[in-house]
Amino acid sequence: MRVSDILKVKGNTLYTVTPETSLHDAVNTMAEHDIGSLVVMEYGDLVGMLTFREIILTLRTNGGSVGTTTIRKVMDDHPITCTPETEVDEVRRMMLEHHVRYLPVMESRSLMGVISFYDVAKAVVEAQGFENKLLKAYIRDWPEEEQHSGR
To answer: Where in this chain does the record put each CBS domain (predicted)?
Structure first.
């Protein structure tokens, strides 16, 4: 299974912000849309990711307030990415190795979507469920062996 398969099921709704967006506005957007990340774009290029991890670190640093900080000051400015052709097993390895929950999907310099750890887990569980159904159907329809007489 490839990332493109996950994106087909997930849909193509994307939430992006600029580096100059206030962190306060970003938090409101994330809460309003029940999302855990925002892609930070500038002049059509991916320049960062904002996730709840960066927000929590900012809250800790600022005594529980996001203040007037802009996204540029707190974003991950070197997010790892994948492509639509990346295999899901590779994405799982990347997410675990780099301790990230969200990966922008890039094709050349174009943002195709974002996949989350949840999206990957859901796709894997659904694929395993489908395989299990096929195996059970195969076993259920297993041809009976011919009875051999002892003559």
So the answer is: 6-66, 75-134
